């Protein structure tokens, strides 16, 4: 998957600075799929989180 969109704010990665977003994404799950900008279905659990895009599948961390 090519990362086109910011997982935090949903804007294109080439659109401005996403420094704050990167910082936020180190702490919390992404809200948007980086490939298609769909809203991720996020589940937080004790070991971390998982975020699912209906097209691109599941991302996990933790
Ligand atoms: Zn951003
Ligand atoms: Zn996607």
TrEMBL record:
Residues 40-60 form the Biotin synthase auxiliary protein C-terminal domain. Its cofactor is iron-sulfur cluster. InterPro entries: BsaP_C. Keywords: Biotin biosynthesis, Iron, Metal-binding. The keyword Metal-binding applies. Required for the activity of the biotin synthase BioB. Belongs to the BsaP family. This is Biotin synthase auxiliary protein.
